[in-house]
Amino acid sequence: MAATVVADREGTAAEPAAAAGPERSGRTAAARSARRGPTPRPARAAWRLWDLEGRDRALALVVAALLAVPFVAAVYRARAAGWVPSGDAGMIGLFARDVLHGHLPRLGTPSTAGLVSDAVAPRHPGPIEFYALALPMAALGPTNGMLFWTAFANGASVLVAAWSAFRRLGPGLGLWAAFACGALAWSLGPAALVDPINSDAGAVPLLGLAVLAWAVAAGDRRLLPLLALWSAYYSQLHLGNLPLGLALTTWALAWPLAGWALPVVRRRRWRRGRRRTPAPPIEVVAAGVASDPSAAAPDGPSPARSGGVAARWWPWALGALALTLVLWAPVLVDAAAGHPSNLRLIWEYGRLDDRSAVGWRSGLRQAGHALSPRAVVLRNGLQPVDLRQPLSTRGAVGAVAVVLGLAAVVARHRRRRPELALLAGTALAFAAAGAVVGAQVPTLQVFRLGYFRWEAVVSALAVVALGAAVLLEVSALRVARRPLVREWARLFGAWLVIGITVLGAAVAGPKHGREDDGYAMERRISAAVLPSVVGKEDVLLVPYGPLASRSLAMPLALDLEAHGHHVTVPDFEADNYGDHRRADRTDPDVVVVLGGSVGQPKPLPGPLLLQFSMDTERRAAVLELSEQARSSAVRISSEGPALARAAGVDPGTFALWVQRLPDEPARYLRNETALRLFQAGYLDAPQLDRSRLAELLDPVHRSLWSQDTVQVTILTPEQYRATYGAIR
Q1: Which of 164-182 are b and which e, b meaning 16 or more Cβ less than 10 Å from the residue's Cβ?
Q2: Those residues with Cβ within 8 angstroms of residue 452's Cβ, 6 or more apart along the chain or in another chain
Q3: Among 52, 220, 385, 483, which residue's beta carbon has the most beta carbons within 10 A?
Q4: In the predicted model, what is the mean pLDDT of the chain?
Q5: Is 308 a residue whose pLDDT tops 50?
Q6: Minimal CA–CA distance to 86: which of 518, 473, 462?
Q7: Strand pairing class (709-715; 608-613)
Q8: 107 DSSP assignment
């Protein structure tokens, strides 16, 4: 399956040129091919696994198993770390439960778009992840169901990408593509492999969508249903995914449509009396197809087989259309019934120009990082801040060199290996689309640049295209035809996949900063609350403080419902839990108040079920520095902008962000970058004790959502009304 296999079964890089016409000596290209040896097998619609011979087929199955290993390892390590569906994952789990309990969701989770625009905030595009999670969660429970489904969806995306590349490129180049696809598990880092949160869950499926888009554009119409599936899944997960998903789907469909439209136009021109271009001699066509399988119509007949095969593309197109209608049905129902519909809100949000974006320079910088010679897909631990860094002169020159290299692949292989040329063109087009989307990210949410991870997928496409072009040139050398060289090349390709599998499995597992405290905290809360509500059907859950509202309450609600309780929440939380969970819909049997705070919380009425802190050792430092931060307004020192740039943050964005330090000091005293800048002299005012800052930095004070203390109380409905007023 090495690159030399391509030379044997797909033709060498030199042969397609010979197929263009007779040689100067009078011999045809077909005669020249016969002199060199046996003619390769006729072109097929695509390479198929069962067409491989014994050892090659076994190697393909081993490669497929290896590509799945990092995702299996991620599930194992997540369970070992005590992973629970925390924060937004708990919200997603609640909506997934609704699918099997009579409340079919039509939209995705709430978005933060309203924080940066005056438009009514739309929700994320669709509920496809809720429907996908419903059965796994029902069968395996909330935690195991979410972990296993996310790992399965991500692993399937890598396998489908590698298989699609094999179908179009053949065994040798397909092995190289499998290595690049497997590298994504190493590149994205541990959390993305099993994280169901919608900003992470689309990272790996984007690879599957991008490769399927290229394969369909190259003419593999049998993949149209898979394209529809991956396009819907990726595009519905997140608002930021929608433009990239639409761009890739449009790219995929434009080429087959153009291939259908051009002959129609040519026939009309011929009927108007224009001279039709004479067909090439039949022996030239046969020689070209024999030396280059891509010369045949991807889903059409080979020269040896004629008959209606080429016309049978329409079942795949109809299947893709039907699948698209099913997968987008909830969104379409909302579009028909909503007032206004979520699609209308997304449109209004996109067309309003009332927010400051990072701009085109930042978008081009992101594309430059994606196309850097230091391939993103082969680097581990890349942080969102790295994508915001300006490109060095060497980095910019390298990115331009990669662009020129991809353009050269397009030019050189446009006729010889059009599927490879199209792959290079897809990488360039995807980078351009990513730059456009990246330029529109609001300045106040610049930290979200790394959430969509399109840079790693662009990098993977570029690595496959450039590597395949090099392998084709090597395969044309005489030495590459020797059996021993072919065997060593096969072994080298297999060891590449093994190596990247080991690296991907070594980093697989959740690393959100919650392993030490967050997950344990959520399990302790559930263990305290569940026995206290036995026999109570309706539970009103009242969270206050960002730690409780954004992190702890959702997994608790999911646990309560998994144990047979019906959870309701106050109106201000209803968007995150569903309208059917509003407190005014039913009279609760018991009320659970869950609160988060910085340091010692205020006493609450009712029996105290639980109270604990994540980091009691440094609480005194936080309280003292908080008092100092409230003493005066923020004034940035003259060295502040330079210090911010040295720390890898945008000076203007950070200066705007830090202005609320006196109002919310605890929030800033949990941010490592802010602590280091404060210690380095970023502020002239307020004056913060540097020894206390050092105390928080060594190690960094542990907290979630800038809070470190939790307490849980339980009340009767009467006690709640007497203390807090009406339940609503």
Answers
A1: bbbbbbbbbbbbbbbbbbb
A2: 199, 202, 203, 206, 238, 240, 241, 244, 437
A3: 220
A4: 82
A5: no
A6: 518
A7: antiparallel
A8: S
Structure tokens at 140: 């395996």
Task: Give the residue from 227, 232, 230, 229 showing the smallest Cα distance to 215.
Answer: 227
State how far the Cα of 585 lies from the Cα of 583, in Å rounded to an integer.
Answer: 5
Q: What is the pLDDT of residues 86-122, one digit of tens each?
A: 889 999 999 999 999 989 999 999 988 777 677 778 8
Amino acid in position 270: W
- Torsions phi, psi for 637 (to 5 deg): -75, 165
Picking from 394, 384, 391, 386, the residue whose alpha carbon sits closest to that of residue 361 is 391
Confidence of residue 450 (pLDDT cuts 50, 70, 90): low
CA Rg, the chain, in Å?
29
**Tens-digit pLDDT profile for residues 315-349:** 999 999 999 999 999 999 999 987 889 999 888 88
Give percent of the chain above pLDDT 70: 82
Task: Identify whether the C-beta of residue 298 lies closer than 8 Å to the C-beta of residue 221.
Answer: yes
pLDDT at 493: 83
Spell out the long-range contacts of 68-71 with Cβ–Cβ below 8 A and sequence spacing 24 or more. Answer: 68/155, 68/158, 68/159, 69/501, 69/504, 69/505, 70/182, 70/185, 70/186, 70/193, 70/501, 70/504, 70/505, 70/508, 71/151, 71/152, 71/154, 71/155, 71/158, 71/185, 71/193, 71/194, 71/508
Give the bridge partners for 713, in sequence order: 593, 608
Q: Is the pLDDT of residue 555 over 90?
A: yes
Pick the more confident residue, 161 or 293: 161
What values do phi and psi take at 612, rounded to 5?
A: -160, 165
In 3-state terms, what secondary structure has residue 74? Answer: helix
First to last CA, the chain: 65
Helix 393-413 vs helix 454-475: crossing angle, to nearest 10? 50
Q: What is the SS3 string spanning 79-91?
A: HHCCCCCCCHHHH
Q: How far apart are CA 513 and CA 517, in angstroms?
A: 8
Report the alpha-carbon distance of residue 644 to residue 651 in Å, rounded.
5
Residue with tokens 């610049």: 446
The owner of tokens 């529809």 is: 228
Contacts of 663 (CB under 8 A, 6+ apart): none
* Size of the chain, expressed as the number of residues it contains: 728
The DSSP code for 358 is: -
Distance separating alpha carbons of residues 328 and 236, to the nearest angstrom: 9
Q: Where are the beta strands (DSSP E) in 326-481?
A: none
Which phi-psi region, left, alpha or beta, contains residue 608 (left: φ > 0; alpha: ψ -120 to 50)?
A: beta
What b-and-e string marks burial along 97-106, b requiring 16 or more CB atoms within 10 Å of the CB? Answer: bbbeeeebbb
Q: What residues does 715 pair with on adjacent strands?
A: 591
